[in-house]
Amino acid sequence: METARARHLSNRRYQLFLLVTGLFLSALCHAQETLSGAPQERVETNASILKLEQETGYRFFFLEEWTRDIPEEVDLSGLTLSEALDTLLANTPLNYYILEDEKRVFLLENTLIYDELPKHFFGRKDTLASETTEGITAPRPVPSFLAESVQRTARKYPIARIGKASSNQLRQRYTLRGRATNESTGEPIPDLTIRLSGTNRVTITDEQGNYSMDLPPGYNVLSITAIGIENMEREIVMYNDGTLNLAMEEGLEQLDEVVVEADAISNVEETSTGKETIDLEESRNIPLVLGERDLLQVAKALPGISSAGEGATGLNVRGGKTDQNLVLLDDAVIYNPTHFFGIFQALNPFTTKGADIYKASVPVEFGGRLSSVFDIRTKNGNVERFSGEGSIGPVTGNLALEIPVKKDTSSLVVGGRGAYADWILRSLEEESLNNSEASFFDVIAKYHHRFNDQSEIRATAYFSRDDFSITSDSLYNYTNRLASVRWDHRHSNKTVGALMAANSDYRFGIDFDGQANTDFDLTYRINETELKYKLNTRLNDKHSLDYGISSKFYSVNPGSIEPMGSDSDIVPVFIDEEQAIEGALFVGDEIALTDNLSLDLGLRYAFFAALGPGTQRTYFEGQPRNEATVQDTLRYNSGEVVETYGGPEARVSLRYLLAPDFSVKASFNNAYQFVHTLTNNTTVSPIDTWKLSDLNIEPQTGYQASLGFYKNFNDNMYEVSVEGYYKRMDNVLDFKTGADLFLNEHVETEVLQGEGKAYGIEFLIKKNRGKLNGWLGYTYARSLYRFDSQFSEERINGGEFFPSNFDKPHDLSLIANYKLTRRYSFSVNFVYQTGRPVTYPIGTFRFNNADFVAFSDRNEFRIPDFYRLDLGINIEGNHRKNKLVHSFWTISVYNVLGRNNPYSVFFVTEGGEVKALQSSIFAIPIPSITYNFKF
């Protein structure tokens, strides 16, 4: 008996028959295309097909490689030929056509054979057409066809045929899903831009590289771009819903530019406002202090993000306090992401992939902070080969290793940093710091395992520690520790989910060893554990739902002090531990109203409960809170609810495309914040404490509205945006004059809760390509607070609005990089900021034979304006592909102009005279040279 393959190739006369009798969409063209390429692997004819031929007497025509997925041991007894074929081909892309008269069966990949014309072909009314809500007849879905001219075109990638054609499932749109991965490492590619050529239809891959896109039936061309990835163009034919996974090659010039085109496209097309995406490679060519690559310093160069001063811990986003930022490292909160008073970030630059920063339009899954979210991601390891990256600089040494655990499946990333920073303190202008010391280290490990295309797991562990001694008798230390586990799973073609568990711990301590019997050990700790489950369901091409639930448990040790050594006279003090739970339910819908108009709606319900054990005071209503107005002291058992707070949070954003490269966006969101920092320092310090809301301290609340315009020029080479915002805040914390906050059992008597407002306009222009690239950002912003009361001791500046400690109306940043050759580039970083507010003494007076100083209203004056110029030269090694180690040198000078920028201004009394003194962090140019290597 002649073989099925021979019969298939010899019976060419049936092509003519099928063309004449109907609309013939044949797999023969695909067969010819396949056979004309590289030699195909020999596949034996499927046993089930052979058995059907023998039992039915029908002859089958097909290509043998199509039968790979057909099961070979299936019980087909008692079934008709059609039923048997339906069973065999159910989970394959194959259809069939039975020619009864000739007893022949044609198998076709993806496609169908139509042997009669549709009823409407000769002008009759199409009874299958649908009526729209406007009464206009919608076009009838048509079968998918592939033109002969397209089939004959030369191409790098073969045409992908998606889905299995079905005459019962003809639709105007089919859904294409898939996952984008790095071909070399196997790790997912987030923020990959996939555009349907010739249209504004675009989608972007999520953090796991997954994407979903609705496409018309038939032939489509997808244009695919991503950061550091070679551009790809894929041709596909949509027959039905289906999957196309993308294995992307790394771009040969991925390190040449500060920003890439994919980010510029998303700036216009995404619905969210106030979002910034940073890839850590952006900081590679930016001259920073002592040569350290620093994601947080790059963030400060963007509009709307600043700090209270050079060397200040924490960031201020759109007029918010530093405690109003939620900083996440792989889904776990990191309470202090800096080392050495904010001069260095506490993140290994070689294990950090990048960050999404949300200044507005915060995704519905995030909550608990009023101002911003920093969603920082670490890298997945190389699953192909052992590799590493590191640097050696004047202060720190960094190393990160990527270790394949199971090839193509799992990997381990391990990173470590150490500092030898004592010499910095000795070089500072302040003489009292000459005998000081400082050191820090951080370590991180991440395990990533991909079970299959539908499921993967990631686990991250991180620890950092700082030790510093500003005086000879006190040793300060603080530590961050966190761990997180995340399981991502695709439940169906439409739904993906992520289950996350995380624990974060932040501690600081002071060891005092003085001359007298006053040695002590002081400690503080905050710990939180979170569990979150979120899902995304793409209902159709108009709606994409995000929804889920989260819960969090807080445990806070507000502080304790114990004598150190047997000779110490210090009396032990232990403040009652605080506990609380925080939870949220959230749902959001991303709605594509038209190709030009999209809307993102979200609702989040936040809940908080302060728990015992502990004691809480109540105070007489209408009286200031102090020892004299205590009404009662309440005691709560373990787990007993002290007080509850909560309410709904709305997330609304809208985007309208005025042109393919020009959009206008608007957004509104409100939020609750149940944790606060307590500090009476002018700027944030590592020993500020966190306080949970309780019976007497209410949660902070606020809302923000924003409006922006986004425009790209010259094929996305230039990106321009202008965005304005207005923010209101309630129950923000400040302190009474002379407040004693630490180790205070009744801290509510020392703090005030008032209102704040912030507003501003942000301008940003980027050049994304060419020898000269970078960005210029300018922000005009105000941040004002008001604390008013009928009692003078609870009133600041007469109850009027006054500038916050970080109110800087004018903020200008310039980042530029000029690539002279492939190996040499020059970088410049210029920053100008209005001086921050300060309170000055304005006179003296004498009372009861003692001299006193009279101070101005709080923050009535300003320190001198801040500006700084940094320069850098980057020298890369040769670009030979097979080198064992690729390296480059970074030579930079921080503060080239030697500007003596004041960090703070303080006052001392000498000989009965008040004198103003200025403290600076870096008052001279700071040169550095760093060697970077990668293998």
UniProtKB/TrEMBL annotation:
Q: Which PROSITE patterns match?
A: TONB_DEPENDENT_REC_3
- Membrane topology of the entry: Multi-pass membrane protein
Q: What protein name is recorded for this chain?
A: TonB-dependent receptor
Main localization category: membrane
Q: Which UniProt keywords apply?
A: Cell outer membrane, Membrane, Receptor, Signal, TonB box, Transmembrane, Transmembrane beta strand, Transport
Tell me the organism. Answer: Robiginitalea marina
Cite a single Pfam family from the UniProt record.
CarbopepD_reg_2
What the record says about family reads: Belongs to the TonB-dependent receptor family.
